[in-house]
Design a protein that fits this description.
By secondary structure, the protein is of the alpha/beta class. The protein has 14 helices and 16 strands. It folds into two domains: 247 residues, Rossmann fold (3-Layer(aba) Sandwich); 98 residues, CBS-domain (Roll), CATH 3.10.580.10. Bound molecules: adenosine-5'-triphosphate.
Length: 373
Amino acid sequence: MISFSAVSKRFPDGTVAVDGLDLKIDAGSFTVFVGPSGCGKTTSMRMINRMVLPTAGSVTVDGRDVAATDAVELRRSIGYVIQGGGLLPHRTVVDNIATVPVLRGQSRRAARRAALDVLDRVGLDPVLAGRYPAQLSGGQQQRVGVARALAADPPILLMDEPFSAVDPVVRAELQSEMQRLQAELRKTIVFVTHDIDEAVRLGDRLAVFGPHGRLQQFDAPNTVLSAPATDFVADFVGRDRGYRGLSFRSADSVPLHDIRRLRESEIPTATLAPEEWALVVTGAGHPQGWIDAAGLESVRAGRPVAEASAAGGSLFTVGTDLRQALDAAISSPSGIGVAVDASGTVAGGIDAADVVALLAEQRRTEDRLRNGR
Ligand SMILES: Nc1ncnc2c1ncn2[C@@H]1O[C@H](COP(=O)(O)OP(=O)(O)OP(=O)(O)O)[C@@H](O)[C@H]1O
């Protein structure tokens, strides 16, 4: 466990970066320090691996006061990942990953072999092992940065805005990868970000920092969204917190409606009423796109199906949450969200009005439980 008690940090120029921080971080948890720029997240994180020493209070890791622990020894058990990966530019990927194990006395050969395993673990092709950092994409560099921190298998991982420099699509991939890795590794992770969406997606617990380095709230993401502790937190999580909160709600009882499905082979003889849409599916029943009567006509006139149909919106995978269900319904060109099972086969259609009705019903039940009725 990592514990902050009454921790403050005043820099020599008088800046108070952290003020009276009390926080207990459980072993094996994923804790996100989130808040706007300059509110002390990075300074707080760096007090865990002794890159910064507190001016008041104490930070302990597994009961040992960090200030009284040798920095080199301490950092053996704490991996550190920064934006861009922080890779050594003149070393290959495999040697970057093997650096710390070699410094600790592992043979270069054994360290390289282990590095290849870690590379695979973070979803990178082993053919990249011989490349230099400049020959990788931003997302790949970031994955190597994670691999390097994991190579020494530390129980604690500190990650400082690791995914901020990559584009949103790659960022979402890295976030999923991180979720998968954490489910497998169960490290104690402390992750700094200013992005509330990223925080909500990754964290088991969010520590929301505010002005003057003061902690505003330390709670599960769902609680931060549904019951912000201060006006500052309410403002920071934003007006769409209700929408974000949907990702914590079960969509198990959203009704699935029948939807009209067409295989490509059926298009030549199919008819659709005006305003009616059909979902074009593959032989395996996977969705391809929506088509209407005008689309059918144009296919019959020789246009490829892919061009004559409207690409579907996002998909709702049965068993996931209300946010996915609502996203699927409102992003679909036909107004009907496409639900698929785990294998990607169409399971039915979702109506946005049903999602909203289910949300209202869940809230009513919660209110009743709260009021003891
Ligand atoms: N070495 C230093 N000397 C003086 N002031 C510092 C030093 N390091 C950080 N600060 C100040 O301390 C405050 C907190 O900085 P910190 O980097 O911890 O914030 P942050 O929340 O991580 O912000 P960001 O996301 O922008 O990095 C800021 O006002 C910053 O300017």
